[in-house]
Amino acid sequence: MTKLTRADLAHFTGTGEWYRHGLNRRMLYTDGVQYLAQKGGAYWLLDKIACLQLEPKIRTEEFQVWRLHVMADRTARLVCDDGNDNGAVLYSEAIEFTDFPLDQITIWVEGNVILLPTEH
């Protein structure tokens, strides 16, 4: 299996196919997010983002910016904000271990669609 790179993700500038999330059927995601999940072993991240859409504070935000920051010791922090200049944090979680291959990734949620910023 080839390793996920930022350059790979930069090629996604739209989507040809929509994928329905298995746990939260209202959520769709794009080709780029599918590639990220498959090549980066990050279906757990998609599950977390999709399931957290049920939280009232998150559900009411039409646009969300999710950032995963992976530290050198393989711990991580997942943060969701509203994408505005004020950076109102909607959710934050410390992750004890991840093997996610990039040091960070940003994922957007707009409406009920999970997408890469380059796919907007």
Main attributes of the structure:
single chain; 120 residues; Nuclear Transport Factor 2, Chain: A; seven-stranded mixed beta sheet
Task: Tell me about this structure.
The protein has 120 residues and is α+β, with helices and mostly antiparallel strands. It has a single domain (22-119), classed as Nuclear Transport Factor 2, Chain: A, CATH 3.10.450. It is 23% helix and 29% strand. The protein is built from four helices and seven strands. It has helices at 6-10, 31-40, 43-51, 56-59; strands at residues 19-20, 28-29, 63-70, 76-81, 89-95, 104-110, 113-115. It has a seven-stranded mixed sheet. It is globular. The mean pLDDT is 95.
Low-confidence blocks of residues: none
Overall 3D shape: globular
> What is the H/E order?
HEEHHHEEEEE
- Give a short account of the largest sheet: 7 strands, mixed
CATH topology: Nuclear Transport Factor 2, Chain: A
Number of helices: 4
> What is the number of strand segments?
7
CATH architecture: Roll
Task: Compute the CA-based radius of gyration.
Answer: 14 Å
